[in-house]
Amino acid sequence: MEHITLLIGIVIVTALVFDFTNGFHDTANAMATTISTGAMKPKVAVAMSAVLNLVGAFLSVEVAKTISGGIIDEKAGVRPEVIFAGLVGAIVWNLLTWLAGLPSSSSHALFGGLIGATLVSVGTHGVHGDAIVMKVVIPAVAAPIVAGVAATAATRLTYRLSRGRDEKETAKGYRAGQIASAALVSLAHGTNDAQKTMGVITLALVTGGVIAPHSDPPLWVIVSAGLAIALGTYLGGWRIIQTLGKGLTDIRPAQGFAAQTGAATVILASSHIGFALSTTQVCSGAVMGAGLGRKGGVVRWSTAGRMVIAWCLTLPAAGLVSGGAALLADQGSWGVAAVAVLGLGVSGAIWMASRRKPVTSENVNATAPAEPAGVVTAAMQAVAPPPRLNGAGGPPSAGPLAAAAPVASVATVAPVTPAEPAAAAS
């Protein structure tokens, strides 16, 4: 066994930086709906999520094995420089989508980065195409659909079971359920996503001759990856939390509980069999499914469309950036240094741009702008109009005119008091 060289050390540090960005980029997966419904205070929510992310990192290593020896052929001449280039591309894409507030996939950014860098430096024989299709592409398509269908069914079931009861009373129980389900999602996120960084570090150690091929991640790798993702989670990706909690649909406690439970089930099952799926796509699909599962609930399709476009671009975009970084890194030590400087420069510029309109724990629950009802929204409301409110003085259920109203107005069924003229106007 060789000692850890400077280059391998740089790769390990870069992998932990990616793990950190993964943490704050994906905090929304577990906590967006819990925060948006008021079940937990924002800072308390992200603290709980961080602890459970750390715990989840110790539960399994199956996904790490998929990364370290399943997607990239560690015997095909993959060098630490290639892994470094792949990580830089993944980090840059993560930060760009974070700046835009889009819950894109950190996992697919990592996969795209590694694949792009390997194709440029090694060639097609360095990539296991069948593993990419079976363990990345198919789960990427199927998992959010399965989670969305499950969340839609669960949401309709919860409303059916609580039919005739006061929504304010049942909301208390669902908020408690949200806390439990959010904890489960956080645990699942740590189990699936922290392992991806473990796999990358293990791959770097194998290519550098530090450990034998097909080895499990060493304990220090598991601990460091778990701590990095937990720290990133604690800092909170407030921009993406705002998009997923308020910008995609109007989530109520019952819907939040259904969405998180469905997402956690899909993630944990996939982690058990080694599918390195995107927890972001799973949770986003579950939120959309929950939005469609409530009568009168709608999804803001423009936001959903932007998310889907980001999902489709993630693999190729991260691959292109990493491919360019790999070309530069292949030039030798000066090339690796240039990639590091360029990566730091782009990351710093993105951070400076984010300071212009900061999103923090104080304004994360600001109401998203109303989206005018388009064809899809109008059709959904025609099929499932908002329910009639219970209680004295409650307004009647919305009539045909509701289909032409803005989404924010249609989705709000709470009575509007005279002291809230702004809410009525929105």
TrEMBL record:
Its main location: membrane. The chain crosses the membrane at residues 6-24, 44-63, 83-102, 132-155, 219-238, 308-328, 334-353. Keywords: Membrane, Phosphate transport, Transmembrane, Transmembrane helix, Transport. It holds the Pfam family PHO4. It is a multi-pass membrane protein. The keyword Protease does not apply. InterPro entries: Phos_transporter (IPR001204). It is found in: Membrane. Belongs to the inorganic phosphate transporter (PiT) (TC 2.A.20) family. This is Phosphate transporter. It comes from Streptomyces orinoci (Streptoverticillium orinoci). The lineage of its organism: Bacteria, Bacillati, Actinomycetota, Actinomycetes, Kitasatosporales.
